[in-house]
Structures are given as C-alpha cells and as structure tokens.
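Retro notes
What went well: the complex prediction finally ran end to end.
Inputs used:
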Amino acid sequence: MHRSTSWFAALVLVLPVMGQAQTIQNATLRRAQQAFDNLDYRQALTVAQASLRERLSGFERGRAYELLGFTYSGMDSILKAVEAFKQVVLIEPERDLDPNRTSPKALSAFQVALTQILVVRQLRVDSSNFIGGQGAVPIRYIVTQPSRVVTRITGGTGPLASMRIDSTVANGQVNLRWPARLPSGDPVPAGNYNVVVEATVGQNNFSTSQPIRITHGAVDTLEHLTSLPGYTYLPETEVPPKSWKPLGLALVYSGVALAGTSALSHGELGSPSMREGAVIGVGIATAGFVMTLKKPAPQPARGSILYNQLLREQITRRNTEIAQENTRRRQQVAVTVTPLPRTGGGR
Amino acid sequence: MKALAVALLLFWPVGLAAQHVTIGPQIAFGDYREVSSALHYRGNGLAAKATVEWKKLSADVVLSKVKYKPTESNSGASEFDASEIDVRMRYYIRGPFSAEVGFMNRKADPEFEAQSVGAVTLGAYMGYLLGPGVHMSLNGGLLFGAKYSGGGTTAGLGAVQLGLGLTVDALKGRMKVTGDYGFQTFARTVDNGSGPLDAPIQQSLGRVGLAIAF
C-alpha cells in the first residue's frame, strides 16, 4: 500500500513536467496555432514569425517552424515552406509528418526539405541475441543526401573507444550488420556503448547516435537424448500365438522313441518292453499338453531387436554429436544487444 | 559308485566355471534281455546324472546301478547287478540338432550271469523347448566297437541306441525334474565252433529323478 502511494505521488509530480516538455507553453505560438486552425494564414504567419523572436524551447521552436511550413504550403509559397521544414528537420531530425493528416503540398515540401539538408534519421539498432562470432546486430538508418557515412562504436576502452564498423557512400535507407566482435575476433566485452553514425558531404556533416547495452551470458547447452522424437523402442520379445505344437512334438518325439524301440528289438528276445519308454513318453506328452494349454513363452522378435539396436546406435551417435556441440558451446559466449533510450537528437 | 566320484571330480570344477551344471540322483528301472526270451530280467536301482553346458558344447555323464532279477523264477537264471557308465559329449550344430559322441560301459556282477559290454557311441541329438523351463530331447546313434565279456562280435550297424529325455525346471530353475529313457540293442553273434549263433543283448532303462542346477 505504502509502495503504491509513493508511485502515485511520483506520477503526480512527474506527469505535468513531462506534459510541459511536449506541449506549447508560449502564448504567441499558441495564438499562431489558433490562427492557423482558423485558416487565417496571414495572421498565423505574422504571429508565428513573432514567436520565433521570443524565447522558445526546442520543441516549441520546431513547432513554430512547422507551423510556418504548413502556412506557407497553404499559401502556395513552396520555397518558403521548404525552408521552414528544413529548420524543422534540423531541430528534430526524427520528425515525420503523418501522411494521413497532412496536405499533399506540405508533405511534398517536407520531402524536398529532407533532400536539401544532410541528416541521418531513424537510426535503429535491433535487439538481438546470438552466439559470439555466429551472428550480427542489425543496424539501419536513413541518410537524406548522398554522403560518406561512417558508423562507429564508441564508449568503450582500448579499441572500443572508437571502433569503425562501417564506412560507405550512401543515400536513403542503409542496412548493415555488425558482428559485435573486436578486431582480434573476440566478442565485444559487456558494457554500454554508442552506435554513432556520421554523415559527411563537403563541409556539411551530421551525426547521430544510439546507445546500446551489450551483455554476455552462457550459451545454452543441449540436453542428451533418451529417445528420438517419433520413434519408440519396440518390445524385443513377442508371445507367439497359442498352438498345439508342443503336444504334437511331444507325441512325435515319444512316438519315434517307442516305435524305434519296437522296430529295433530282436524278435528272438520276445516282445519288447515298452514300460520304460512309456513312462517317460507319457511324461513328455503330459508336459507337451500342459505347455499347449499354457501361455506360450515370449520369443525374441528379431525385427524389433534389430530396430531397437538401430535406434540405440542412432541415439548414441546423436548424443556424441551433442556432447561435442556442448563442449564447443561451453567455450562460447551468448551476446545480447539491447538498444537503450536516447538522451538527445543528432547534430 | 567309485566311477561316479571320479566323474564328479572331473566335471565339478568345469561346471563351476561354466555355471551351466546340473547334477542329481535318479531312480532307475529297467528291462534286460539276452540271447533268447527265456533270459528276461527286470530290475530297479539308482542312478546319477550330471550335465555340463558350455557354449556349443555339452556333456552328459550317467552312472547307474540296477539289480536285475529274472522275470521267470524257473528259468534257471540268477539275479545280477548291472553297473553302467554312459558318457556323451554333444556339439550344437543348428536348429534342434547336435552331434553326439561318447562311450558306454556296463558290467554285470556276478560276472558270468550276464554279458558285460562296452562300446563307443556316435549319433545325433534333437532338443526342443516345449515351453518355459520344459525341455525334451530325442537321441539316437550307433554303438561301435562293442566288446563283450563272453566274446562275440557285432556287425557295423548291429548295435543301436535310442533315447528320450525330459527336463522340467522347478524352483525358478534351481531344481530340475528329470526323466530319461534309454534303449540299447546289440546284434551280437558268437561262434563256438559250430558256426555263428545269434546272441543278442537288449536293455531298456528308464530313469526319473531330480537335479540341482548351478
């Protein structure tokens, strides 16, 4: 409860300050805006120019020039509109007009203004996470005029005090990928850095920056496999269907023994004695009958045994590969790049 | 019995190493005939059987002593003890088949009441697993080089032996119930100067017993 009250108090104190930073406080400028909203362009022009002679914040100055640009566009004074928009872009390089809420004349004047001054806009460093040496950080920006653009990393020590990562002659959208490695090939140490983009053409130059934070972590290792997805071990024995084979074979074996006894006996010795053979033969036949009634013993299933053997070999091979991969990963670093909020615009 | 002790001493250490040894006593009952139907004996006795298995090789040693009595008291025959040793070694070939080689020797006591005989055996053995722990076998072969205490000879294929066996596991395989049947016939001929005379010998021996498995 106490904690939420503190947060609320902080918000009450901070919100008006934030609102002041992004709203027009200057009365003259507000009158100019009012005149423009009333389509009184002459009045808006006069009052907006008057406001520029007053003390304005950066935001208000940008709005004042923007109002002039819109007003000149409305009055078909395109060249003057372009000049006013150039001032807007110089003050706020990231400024863009909403094409759905802006007249085509003003939009075209704004676009012309962009092409007449050198700025680097919309510098973006995407959040990314990769294994050091195996990935790259996407960086993109827009340069408004053909110029020599140098991208550097600053804010570190040693080579990272100012390390050039790209140099090109570009115009328009530029995309580049930075592997976040030092010249030695090692990953850039963890810390806060700035991605600085400097564009130069003749005497003009412009630079902007984006702070980033680089953190290091351990690379995830792979778990060893106990099974292959979609493949399961098969039972290595199978119960054969019940059959009369045990009894049949018991009778055959006993019959052969008794018939053999009878056939091989000498006639002059009288009729052969079947007592001994019969006792054992009956025992075998009884055992065969019982085995016929019993559930057959599981027999090895050769196909399943081979299949399981193949599966085990496959898993062993894959685990060996995983072990080698994990050994390699333990020597690697997971690099995480996170863009930080900007503190100011470009110059 | 001395022979049994000697056989046990010979096979016991091998059995311990191989760990596929069974040994146990049996009750024997038999039928013995010689020369003519008048010399017909039946009897009971004791036997011991040891089996050793090692890889594709296996061996059976059977010692038995049966007291045979004449089936007809007025035949003039007297009872006698038949002590027999039967040794067979097998080599597994394929499927149910094994080759079998060995020897047998039977001594009659008193010596002149019946023929003592010894021969080398050569034959085949068929084994089949009827079900879990239940094994049956059928074996047959020839008895070569038969020697008789009373003389006489046997033609090459004149001596034959046949056998049937059953083994049932009990107590989780530590104990086995055994049953064996053996039939031997010797087409013996003797010549006392008046020409060759047939004097066949025939024995049917059944054995039932227990065995301990190691």
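What we learned: Chain B has one domain: 2-213.
What to try next: split runs per interface for comparison.
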